[in-house]
Design brief:
This protein is mostly helical. The chain contains eight helices and three strands. The termini are far apart. Keywords: Membrane, Transmembrane, Transmembrane helix.
Length: about 280
């Protein structure tokens, strides 16, 4: 009797004889038409951007065709090319020469005007009897009347300007070297310091300003010595002995000074000038 085979054994042999199936590969999901259209538009947009960037950098080869078509509805803002620099306009040479000539003429006129003003002020300074020689540059009394025309008035103005505290005017009635002599005789460093300190010692401005008369009769000579104490100075300290000399145009300049007492005794007789 033929031997009957077990069905389980036959089934095992069939399993071994069947070829091995390759591993299952998951296929890419299928895109519907709308998704495919959007993907294609995105690729076109990327291609267009790459083309425009290359064009701006000058990397596009001429004759390689036009740029990719931008996707429908995609507004791409492309920066306009930078404008080329304008050529510099050179000024013609004749214009430069004209401008240089005009500038030179203006400079010449300015220098000429300043020089003319200085010369005019030198020969024709302003007429002001209250301006001292120190303010007008010294020595200008040779051409103009800027000092007193009376010797006693010259000394009286010193007292007047000391009473007002004006060293610029008080010191100006002295010859320049005598200004320092006046200050030293009174114990000060300079004429300005002397006037400013003497002002603080004035007790009566009006009396002190009129300590000396403006005119005394019987004047003789061109050099006169005037002693402050000969007139009884009041309202402040006496300023010593002055030497006044007649200079150009009948003016009187203080050319010397000597110390004297700060407080004068009352005069006993009328003073008379000495020459």
């Amino acid at each position: 009797m033929p031997e009957q085979r077990d069905e389980s054994e036959d089934h095992g042999e069939l399993e071994r004889a069947r070829p091995a199936e390759p591993p299952h590969v998951q296929s890419a999901p299928q895109l519907d038409p709308e998704q495919l259209r959007q993907f294609q538009q995105f690729q076109q947009f990327q291609d267009y951007l790459r083309y425009t960037e290359a064009q701006q950098r000058g990397q596009v080869v001429p004759g390689s065709g036009g740029p990719p078509v931008p996707p429908p509805g995609g507004q791409v803002q492309v920066a306009p090319p930078a404008p080329s620099p304008r050529p510099k306009v050179r000024m013609p040479r004749f214009v430069k020469r004209i401008l240089a000539s005009v500038l030179s003429a203006l400079i010449f006129l300015a220098v000429l005007g300043v020089a003319g003003k200085l010369l005019y002020d030198h020969f024709f300074p302003p007429q002001d009897d209250d301006r001292p020689a120190s303010e007008t540059g010294g020595g200008t009394y040779h051409a103009n009347k800027i000092l007193s025309t009376q010797p006693y008035e010259a000394v009286r103005k010193v007292y007047q300007q000391v009473a007002q505290g004006r060293p610029d005017l008080a010191c100006g009635y002295f010859d320049i070297p005598v200004q320092q002599k006046f200050a030293t005789d009174l114990g000060y460093a300079d004429c300005q310091a002397a006037v400013l300190d003497l002002k603080t010692r004035v007790t009566n401005v009006n009396d002190y300003a009129e300590s000396l008369p403006s005119y005394v009769s019987g004047q003789q000579g061109t050099t006169i010595t005037i002693d402050s104490c000969a007139f009884g100075v009041s309202g402040g300290p006496a300023l010593g002995v002055f030497t006044v000399q007649q200079v150009d145009k009948g003016q009187w300049l203080i050319t010397g000074h000597e110390p004297g007492p700060r407080t004068c005794a009352p005069p006993t007789t009328a003073a008379s000038p000495t020459s």
